[in-house]
């Protein structure tokens, strides 16, 4: 909160409120680092003029004033800005006046004689509303920027890849975008699930609404519920104010639930209700909130298997599985690698200040032989890295990272080569361990030793990855985690 406008025809009221709001105690109570600027007006006409000129974050207006009443003030302010936050002051607590003020759009009222603690509590509520609005605005701006990036760099008509599988996905996206049905996107990490979700949103009638993402695997159960559904003040330790959840922020648009297979069973029940009824309650709240949105979910897990093993609700699975879109891993669409590589060269040339404008056929053949555990995300990282290090105008084999040029398991590793390794004294367990060690090493290299990201790419728990790093003594290869 940066500014407040006080409108009251009594000077003592104006001075008292101004002093209380500007005090250091109030600023500390609200957790603000800067002072609140307070404007005052002795009548309604002056107050409305100041509002139009200064656009304060909050207006506190008396209801009973000569000439222009507080009700008229609220009516005019709402005509200027329907989102304006107004608190009405009333000395009589007359129900008709209060009801009329609320109907016109006032947030709340305070009865005279007011007390400083009551004023501070109302200000803290207003601060929470302002923060939520700023968050929603930030998300909208972020989505606008991302949408512009999509339009300028990754046009739908030029969806990168000419393979049969990609053409099928494009066709599904075009058809499903015209509906409001739930979509379940499956595929390995790095295949572009979020990009597909954004395309569906951008082509739908909800394109002017928000696109809100929730990573279901990034938070604990309690924090995830608060993030998804919001919470009321005092709902749990640390809940010092009301918070709008992502479902509320996505109202009128699309919510993208990434890694939905990570949801606990209790959270799955609540999500099922949102799918069925489009309503929910905030954590610690009793008020039912209705929303109008589309749900798109994504996972790299086999949800059918999760259902069989009772880790994912069958009814929720079929609610989400209205329109399934399966994105193939890059190793199953290697014919798209030349187009993707050239696209990423164009995308990152300016940022890396590179003179590279193409890639040789020999280098492309090497890219096609690699198994790409990190999929498109890994390919993009490799191209960007190569642009940074390459001195020529064309990417050649020697410019590619060493782990790409000579992977452990490429097409040269035919059955004869494998058998030869066993004739030299290697048993099956050692052979498998050798492969596992190399794959883990390559994945850590890809993620710059970000173990959480590496575990996600490999589809194993972080604790399992840490055990294997110690087992294969890979800590010496990667001493410092990024």
What is the element layout, followed by pairings?
Layout: E1 3-7, H1 11-22, H2 24-30, E2 37-41, H3 44-54, E3 58-62, H4 70-80, E4 86-90, H5 95-104, E5 108-111, H6 116-153, H7 164-176, E6 183-186, H8 193-203, E7 211-215, H9 221-229, E8 230-231, E9 243-244, H10 246-249, E10 254-258, H11 265-277, E11 279-281, E12 288-290, E13 294-299, H12 303-308, H13 314-320, E14 323-326, H14 337-352, E15 358-359, H15 361-369, H16 375-389, E16 394-395, H17 402-405, H18 415-423, H19 428-446, H20 451-458, H21 462-471
Parallel strand pairs: 1-2, 1-3, 3-4, 4-5, 6-13, 6-14, 7-10, 10-13, 15-16
Antiparallel strand pairs: 8-9, 11-12
Strand sequence of the main sheet, in spatial order?
2-1-3-4-5
Average pLDDT, to the nearest integer? 84
Level of helix content?
40-55%
Say what oligomer this is: single chain
Envelope shape: elongated
Q: Give the count of helical stretches.
A: 21
Please report which band the strand proportion falls in: under 5%, 5-15%, 15-25%, 25-35%, 35-45% or over 45%.
5-15%
Tell me about the largest β-sheet. Answer: 5 strands, parallel
CATH architecture of the largest domain: 3-Layer(aba) Sandwich
Please give the radius of gyration in angstroms. Answer: 29 Å
Q: What is the CATH first-level class name of the largest domain? A: Alpha Beta
Total count of strands: 16
CATH superfamily of the largest domain: P-loop containing nucleotide triphosphate hydrolases
- Report, as a whole number of angstroms, the end-to-end distance: 37 Å
CATH topology of the largest domain: Rossmann fold
How many separate domains make up the residues? 4
Low-confidence stretches: 150-158, 408-418
Structural class: alpha/beta
């Amino acid at each position: 909160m940066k500014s407040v406008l006080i409108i009251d025809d009594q000077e003592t009221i104006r001075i008292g409120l101004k002093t209380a709001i500007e005090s250091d105690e109030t600023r500390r109570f609200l957790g603000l680092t800067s002072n609140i600027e307070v404007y005052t007006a002795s009548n309604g006409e002056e107050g409305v003029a100041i509002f139009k000129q200064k656009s304060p974050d909050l207006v506190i207006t008396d209801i009973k004033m000569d000439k222009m009443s507080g009700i008229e003030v609220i009516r005019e302010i709402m005509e200027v800005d329907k989102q304006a936050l107004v608190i009405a002051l009333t000395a009589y607590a007359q129900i008709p006046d209060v009801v009329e003020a609320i109907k016109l759009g006032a947030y709340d009222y305070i009865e005279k004689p007011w007390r400083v603690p009551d004023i501070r509590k109302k200000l803290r509520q207003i601060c929470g509303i302002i923060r939520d609005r700023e968050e929603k605005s930030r998300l909208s701006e972020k989505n606008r920027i991302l949408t512009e990036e999509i339009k300028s760099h990754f046009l739908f008509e030029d969806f990168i890849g000419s393979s049969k599988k990609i053409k099928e996905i494009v066709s599904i996206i075009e058809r499903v975008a015209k509906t409001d049905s739930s979509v379940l996107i499956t595929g390995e990490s790095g295949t572009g699930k979020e990009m597909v979700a954004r395309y569906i949103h951008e082509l739908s009638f909800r394109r002017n609404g928000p696109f809100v993402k929730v990573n279901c695997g990034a938070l604990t159960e309690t924090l995830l519920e608060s993030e998804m559904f919001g919470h009321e003040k005092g709902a749990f330790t640390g809940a010092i104010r009301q918070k709008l959840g992502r479902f509320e922020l996505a109202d009128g648009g699309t919510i993208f639930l990434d890694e939905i297979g990570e949801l606990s069973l209790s959270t799955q029940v609540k999500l099922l209700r949102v799918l069925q009824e489009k309503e929910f309650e905030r954590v610690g709240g009793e008020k039912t909130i209705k929303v109008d949105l589309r749900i798109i979910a994504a996972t790299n897990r086999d949800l059918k298997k999760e259902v069989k093993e009772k880790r994912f609700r069958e009814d929720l699975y079929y609610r989400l599985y209205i329109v399934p879109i399966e994105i193939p891993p890059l190793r199953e669409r290697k014919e798209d690698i030349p187009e993707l590589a050239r696209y990423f060269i164009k995308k990152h040339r300016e940022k890396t200040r590179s003179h590279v404008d193409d890639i040789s056929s020999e280098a492309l053949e090497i890219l096609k032989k690699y198994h790409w555990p990190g999929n498109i995300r890994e390919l993009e990282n490799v191209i960007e890295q190569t642009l940074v290090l390459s001195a020529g105008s064309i990417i050649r084999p020697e410019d590619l990272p060493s782990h790409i040029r000579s992977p452990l398991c490429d097409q040269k590793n035919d059955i004869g080569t494998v058998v030869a390794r066993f004739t030299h004294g290697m048993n099956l367990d050692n052979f498998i361990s050798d492969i596992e060690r190399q794959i883990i090493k390559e994945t850590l290299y890809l993620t710059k030793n970000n173990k959480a990201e590496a575990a996600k790419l490999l589809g194993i728990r972080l604790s399992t990855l840490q055990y294997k790093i110690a087992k294969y003594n890979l800590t010496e290869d990667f001493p410092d985690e990024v």
